[in-house]
Amino acid sequence: RTTDPPESGSLSMLLAATFIASALAAPSCPGSKAFIHAKCSLTATFPSNTCEEVATEMIARINGENAWVDPHNGGVYTLTSGGPTSAVLTTQRVTGNKKYTDLQKWTLNKEGSGCQVQACSESQVTSVIDYSTNYCDLHNLYCGSQDGCPVAHSDFKYTENFNSCSQNDKSQCVVKAATVGGPSECKKVEVQQDFDLDKYISQKWYIQQQQPTSYLPASQNYCVSAMYTKRSGGLFGYTISVDNKAFESDKSTKHEASICAAVADKNDPAKLEVAPCFLPTFAAGPYWVVAFNDEEGWALISGGQPTVPGTNGCRTGTGVNGAGLWIFTRQQARDDAVVQKVRDLAVQKGFDITVLNDVDQTSCPQ
């Protein structure tokens, strides 16, 4: 026979137990005075190291032992409570420019012969998009050579599982502050001068090459296009609607995204910002028209200033904001000479073009 439904009392107890179990499973967070703020909570598992070994290495990095420096733009950590044998540690990190402070909480639990660490970092000011900063606040205190991270004493093997951490781009975690002039530094990118936005958005664009990002992976390098139209300012002042389309290799599985854009700086109209239309502009990411030739029908687009040193140049991140590099053309059919011309220009501008992959624009759905 079918199983009888639980009595109301049993159901209440079941729901309560489920709620408690879920609450216990989620990493405990340090809290923030800001009602809306960025955060990252995750669980890191170290199968071959004790919790004391993990905590000892974290504290060594915080203390700068063996000349350890935070690889994420030189932030400064402070241990605010706990020690090598503590079950709970709390820390804070001040950004390299000394503008922002994030708080972290770490709960360490023995798991077999290893250690499981439940960790959470929260911004202390109003924020939505943090370019993976809260993730890096956590990641950089235990990451190792497998991710190109410097260590103080111990190089760990570990896995990460995310509880609430949508911005978790590892490429943003090992980044030196970009300034202009040194041999290993990223060249300051100049955008298109005398930019005519009306001409730029007057026709559809077809993407011929693009850098993979979290929202546009290499599996969607087929029949990618973008269409821009003017819109009323609305609540957040966005003045442009953006309709993006991409397909997978079967050219029938379609991915569409409608977002909004606005000029970020009226004195530099080639620097735009984009975001889902329901987000305020402070959460938008950079969209720079680095170069645009209306007569020849091409454009070079970047997700802002590249900050990650690469091959003969620098690249942006691979997450959401501050990510991406694209070559646009008005004609859907690929013209190799035009693509090469824009690639050469990207190199001159200081970009690492090895990140660019071809987009297949053949036999596309109408």
From TrEMBL:
InterPro entries: Calycin
Sequence intervals crossing the membrane: none
Keywords: Signal
Alphabetical list of SUPFAM superfamilies matching this protein: Lipocalins (SSF50814)
Signal peptide: 1-25
Cellular component terms (Gene Ontology): cytoplasm
GO process terms (BP): lipid metabolic process; response to reactive oxygen species
UniProt keyword Signal, yes or no: yes
PANTHER family in UniProt: APOLIPOPROTEIN D
Protein name, as recorded: Uncharacterized protein
